[in-house]
Amino acid sequence: MASTAEPLFVPALGSLDDLVPHEGFLDSDELEEIARGIAARPELWRPLARVDRERRRYELLYEDDRMDAWVLSWMPGQATGFHDHYISSVGLCLAQGTVREDQMRYGIPHVERHLRPGDSRRGDPSYIHRVRYEDGEPAVTIHVYSPRLDWVGQYRLGEDGIVRREPSPGRNELRPQLISEGALHGALERF
Fold first, then answer.
1. 156 exposed, middle or buried (CB, 10 Å; 0-12, 13-18, 19+)?
2. pLDDT score of 90 more than 90
3. For residue 69, what is the domain's CATH number?
4. Residue 141 belongs to a domain
5. Domain count along the chain
6. Which of 88, 95, 100 is nearest to 73 (CA)?
7. Which pLDDT band, with edges at 50, 70 and 90, does 7 fall under?
8. Is 133 inside a domain boundary?
9. Residue 136 and residue 115: Cα distance in Å, rounded?
10. Domain region containing 141
């Protein structure tokens, strides 16, 4: 007897054909343009925006075998730590509210950007950043990844002063202590 598992995330849209320029993986410039295109169409993202004061919300808008697109909702106190996107490039655009993006630099203060509606960013797989809420009820960002965001690396500063990169499944919420909470239990056995 065969059993079928329900997917964890069901995309809200069946197609982004009018926004995606071609088949195959997309580069960061193309991803940024797609994120901007989605943000400019509130009828696509607004039904997925969530007000949740307990945790940052992320809703899958679209995915196929080469990319995925997410609607992230941010409230006061919500943030990611510094992270990368493993092998995925990213394009993101602010749709509503304000968030702050920081990029890590060695030995000098990080780069700080305050993103407002219509502001966008892009990065290749080496892009390391963190994002935090600033204003809006909720603030909403659109994130598009290619290939799909299956893994991220989260950067932690240990008590010994050493920065460590911790791998985490890309569809888990980015939070401060994933490994100690057992988030990776059983995740790596499939590789």
1. middle
2. yes
3. 2.60.120.10
4. yes
5. 1
6. 95
7. low
8. yes
9. 12
10. 28-181
pLDDT in tens, 126-173: 999 999 999 999 999 999 999 999 999 999 888 888 889 999 898 887
pTM across the whole model: 0.84
Q: What are 112-121's contacts with CB under 8 Å, separation 24+? A: 115/141, 117/39, 118/36, 118/39, 118/40, 118/93, 118/94, 119/93, 119/94, 120/32, 120/35, 120/36, 120/39, 120/91, 120/92, 120/93, 120/94, 121/32, 121/90, 121/91, 121/92, 121/93
